[in-house]
Specification:
The chain is an alpha+beta fold. Helix content is 23%, strand content 37%. 19% of the residues are buried.
């Protein structure tokens, strides 16, 4: 497993684990980041990511993206 920040732009990956406090994991789940779902990295700038989850594009800062393991 590796953090989502290690994925390259254009790559589609599957979420394996989400770490952090319950509130953080709940917030990410509400945005569509759930285990075994696929996300596509749209772009990456200085560790901050824009990802496609289901039909939405979501911006994640580096610390949030590091909590999502792929």
């Amino acid at each position: 497993m590796m953090p989502l920040t290690m994925a390259k732009a254009g790559e589609t990956v599957t979420i394996r684990k989400i770490s952090g406090k319950d509130e953080v994991r709940q917030h990410l789940a509400e945005l569509g980041f759930v285990v075994d779902s696929d996300v596509t990295v749209v772009s990456e700038i200085a560790g901050n990511l824009i990802v496609q989850v289901k039909e939405s594009r979501i911006a994640l800062d580096k610390t949030m993206a590091n909590r999502i393991m792929i």
